[in-house]
Amino acid sequence: EIITLSDLIAFILYSEMVAGPISMLAGIYVELNKAVSAYQRIGGILEAPHEIVEPEEPYRPEKVRGQVAFQNVSFAYDGSHDVLREVDLEVAVGETIALVGPSGAGKSTLVSLLPRFYDPTKGAILIDGVDLRQWDLDTLRGAIGIVPQDTHLFALSVGTNIGCGNPEATDDEIARAAEAANA
Question: 116 vs 21, 30, 111, CA distance in Å?
Fold first, then answer.
């Protein structure tokens, strides 16, 4: 039997109406597989054992004064090549210091040891006379403010970006923080 022109046009239109959603479903299936794969990788990272171990009875002071002492501190990322070697440094309460040196000299590494992103491979770091390895991590990190040299903004409002550090911050607190930062 011969197909008429109107039947051919109807067939083509119906075919496109079916093919479009099927193609879209195939795309969704591909994206879903990517999402599952990413979730599994993230889960693996989150379930990895922590290198930083909290003490059984962590130190939680009422108030942190802020005296910092590095005592014979050495550090190596790979465990064999020291990035920092036998650093001795004392910073008194209220004192401001500047770390100056060429790129790769260890300035950022030295600062990264304070909130225990890493532990020294040798020596000790004390805040208010107590070794960082004895501190409660939340208490320690809550007492330290970090301003990284690279600024990252999320695709959100300025106020939301400022409030990321404290999700419970009020609009007034965010405004005061912006004013204090001359933003």
Answer: 52, 40, 9
Instruction: Tell whether pTM > 0.70.
Output: no
Show the tokens assigned to 72: 């014979």
Site of tokens 């903004």: 153
Average confidence score pLDDT of the chain: 90
Task: Give which of 53, 75, 52, 65 is closest to 127, Cα–Cα.
Answer: 65
Tokens of 118: 């890493």
71 sits in which H/E element: strand 68-75
Q: Judge contact between 123 and 86, C-beta under 8 A.
A: yes
Mean pLDDT to the nearest integer, 121-141? 95
First to last CA, the chain: 77
Dist CA 35 CA 166 (whole Å)? 28
Chain Cα centroid distance, residue 153: 13
Contact yes or no for 84/110 (Cβ under 8 A): yes
In sequence order, what are the beta bridge partners of 73?
87
